Amino acid sequence: MNRISIILLLLSASLPGIAQSKKPAAKPAAKKVAPAPIQPAVIERGKAVYNTYCVACHQSDGGGVPSMNAPLVKGPHVLGAKTPLISIVLNGMQGVEINGETYSNIMPANNFLTDQQIADVLTYVRNNFGNKASAVTVAEVAAARNKK
Hints:
Blueprint: H1 3-14, H2 40-53, H3 55-58, H4 76-79, H5 82-91, E1 93-98, E2 101-107, H6 115-125, H7 138-146
Antiparallel strand pairs: 1-2
Helix pairs in contact: 2-6, 5-7, 6-7
């Protein structure tokens, strides 16, 4: 090795940031953030909306009526993506197959409900009748309502 190579080698070892062959430090793994706990007031408001507009068809236990009104118990339509569920409340629907059974009654649109009422009732449904899922937010309902 010549003098210049030795000097550069010594300098690079002693000065940070000079052509070192160190690998960059690994980034710490991202921590999963648990969803915020659902406030009891949200559940109470959602239950009130449910008892006013939903219980007649979906029943007090969320079991629905065979072949007529869909159950709200542990189904993918309740526990899955929120936007389709919000759209059902806003726009209504007729005829749906869930787990191999067809439900034929018409569910009317409930777009007269406020975004807060829809968020509350869907949060209630997604966290009752044996269900456990994240809350539906007012912002999610507003976005679905405004989507054309």
